[in-house]
Amino acid sequence: LFPFSQSGNSFHVFDQGQFAKEVLPKYFKHNNMASFVRQLNMYGFRKVVHIEQGGLVKPEKDDTEFQHPYFIRGQEHLLENIKRKVTSVSSIKNEDIKVRQDNVTKLLTDIQVMKGKQESMDSKLLAMK
């Protein structure tokens, strides 16, 4: 269902339907192949696309191949290097928060300046009355 490639640096899922039905429920709370692929992507695995003579080679029937630089047959010690990726969305949110804080600080400064101008205008108006 999912043997290593001959080189040992990738693995195959030959029958996605059977894999989803028989293997995924044993290790996950689902049997959804798309969810499994999404999990693989979160941990840095990539789908292997074969290119031959300028065109894509159509894979055998239902064969899907995945690889990761630290997922190599016989190299179990490398597995500890496979970690869930930190999404860039969180860093964007942190940047947004900093920008928002800067905007709030600028708004508060602008309000203070406007208050001062308003007080000045009020006192001038009072003097004119």
Automatic annotation (TrEMBL):
It comes from the Eukaryota. InterPro entries: HSF_DNA-bd, WH-like_DNA-bd_sf, WH_DNA-bd_sf. One of its GO terms (cellular component) is cytoplasm. Residues 24-48 form the HSF-type DNA-binding domain. The keyword Transmembrane does not apply. One of its GO terms (molecular function) is core promoter sequence-specific DNA binding. It holds the Pfam family HSF_DNA-bind. It is found in: Nucleus. Keywords: Activator, DNA-binding, Nucleus, Stress response, Transcription, Transcription regulation. Belongs to the HSF family. This is HSF1 protein.
